[in-house]
Amino acid sequence: MPYEELEDVKKKCEACEKCGLCKTRTNTVFSGGVPNDKLMLIGEAPGFYEDKQGEPFVGKAGQLLDKILGCVGLSRKKDIYICNTIKCRPPENRDPLPEEKAACREYLDKQIEILKPRIILLCGRVAVNSMMETTQGITKLRGKWFEGPNFSKMMPIFHPSYLLRNDSREKGSPKWLMWQDIKEIKRVYDQLCK
Questions:
Q1: How far lies 168's CA from each of 124, 162, 174, in Å?
Q2: Helix 3-14 vs helix 98-115: angle between axes, to the nearest 10 degrees?
């Protein structure tokens, strides 16, 4: 795999000053997990802990993401590459502005182009809106497969921070729906990637 190319893109990203977020960031948050051509998760934007550590999904939402992956035998240490729509934290964790997403898009596009993942998970509303031309909300889109870049299969999923705010596990609840989605993701992963 051409992982050296990813390092080149990461270095360019770390020096980026294409939008105002470069002035308020502590670290760029380029990626986490392991580079591979099987499974990629695209999140929304770095939060407080991600900005401090320079790695995506390291706070409570990241801990829940690890549990969700682990319940079907997947691990960020060996199975999944994790990145975000934008690489710098927006102040107060606000949604990224259109010009910030546009400035950062080349880095995300290069990550996808270099790895050519077979499965892309779009984690949260911002990731869905960045990767798909749709006005539908994530509740209607989650759990469905869509055609992604480089002939990948793409599925929108709930963001773990949303699941942390919705604790019910009753049938039809967000956590219950996420369990259905992760089982389907694992089924397709086993089919395409083993």
A1: 19, 12, 8
A2: 160
Buried b (16+ CB within 10 A) or exposed e, 147-156: ebeeebbbbb
Given a cut of 50, the residues of the chain with pLDDT beneath it are: none
65 burial type by CB count under 10 A (0-12 exposed, 13-18 middle, 19+ buried): buried
Which sign, positive or negative, has the C-alpha torsion 99, 161, 127, 75?
A: positive
**pLDDT tens digit sequence for 56-90:** 999 999 999 999 999 999 999 999 999 999 999 99
The C-alpha atoms of residue 141 and residue 130 are separated, in whole angstroms, by 14
Measured distance CA(77)–CA(65) in Å, rounded: 13
Tokens of 80: 């999944």
Residue-wise pLDDT tens digits, 25-39:
999 999 999 999 999
CA distances from 34 to 57, 82, 172, 175 (A): 14, 8, 32, 26
Dihedral over Cα of 73, 120, 158, 42: its sign: positive
Residue 76 backbone phi and psi in degrees, to 5: -65, -20
Report the residue count for the chain. 194
Residue 1: the pLDDT is 52
Under 8 Å between Cβ of 50 and 21: no
What does pTM read for this prediction? 0.95
